[in-house]
């Protein structure tokens, strides 16, 4: 069982497939938070307001295709893992194109009886990448703290001469460039 809570966006129009998928996810993930939609506008809303960890989408939907859903997801957040769950991808070339288009994987609906088994490695990869992202976010946070501390130190230096003040200004400008993720107003301090 995956102990990390996952936010899952399920893009599906078939009620039976929704129930089977939700049951498989509940068996795999300790506390899945699952939202379901059937069209592009609802998907856009959930991508913005629900911010899923992974999107699982059918390929054929009543008002759009899975590739349109994939394009929308990539437009909003290119890092969100995307899994097709479909009965359409019988053609190997079509399956390859979905991966080349940016899908993380696909599962054929003919395997719905073993859906959990098919989803497990894909979801484990999602969790692994979430942990990697968390580590990266923590490292970025620590780097920002270090840069802020250096800035604070520079602000408190007793710069009596013009050359020292110019050097401090250059250092602070370099720090701003290094720390691109912070807003510039965080560094608007007098040299």
From TrEMBL:
Protein name in UniProt: Response regulator
Q: Give the superkingdom in one word.
A: Bacteria
Q: Does the keyword Coiled coil apply?
A: yes
**Record SUPFAM superfamilies:** CheY-like
CDD domains attached to this UniProt entry: REC (cd00156)
Q: Which residues form the Response regulatory domain?
A: 7-124
Q: Name one Pfam family in it.
A: Response_reg
Modified-residue entries (4-aspartylphosphate), positions: 58
Q: Does the keyword Membrane apply?
A: no
Q: Which UniProt keywords apply?
A: Coiled coil, Phosphoprotein
């Amino acid at each position: 069982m995956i102990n990390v809570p996952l936010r899952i966006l399920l893009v599906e129009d078939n009620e039976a497939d929704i129930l089977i998928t939700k049951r498989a996810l509940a068996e795999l993930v300790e506390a899945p938070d699952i939202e379901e939609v059937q069209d592009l506008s609802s998907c856009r809303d959930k991508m913005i307001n629900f911010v899923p960890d992974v999107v699982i989408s059918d390929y054929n939907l009543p008002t759009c295709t899975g590739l349109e859903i994939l394009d929308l997801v990539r437009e909003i957040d290119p890092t969100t893992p995307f899994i097709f769950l479909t009965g359409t991808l019988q053609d190997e070339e079509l399956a390859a194109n979905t991966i080349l288009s940016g899908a993380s994987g696909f599962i054929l609906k003919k395997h719905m009886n073993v859906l959990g088994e098919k989803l497990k490695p894909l979801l484990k990869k999602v969790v692994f990448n979430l942990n990697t992202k968390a580590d990266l976010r923590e490292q970025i946070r620590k780097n920002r703290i270090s840069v802020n501390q250096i800035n604070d130190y520079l602000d408190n230096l007793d710069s009596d001469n013009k050359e020292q003040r110019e050097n401090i200004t250059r250092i602070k400008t370099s720090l701003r460039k290094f720390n691109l993720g912070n807003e510039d107003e965080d560094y608007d301090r007098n040299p």
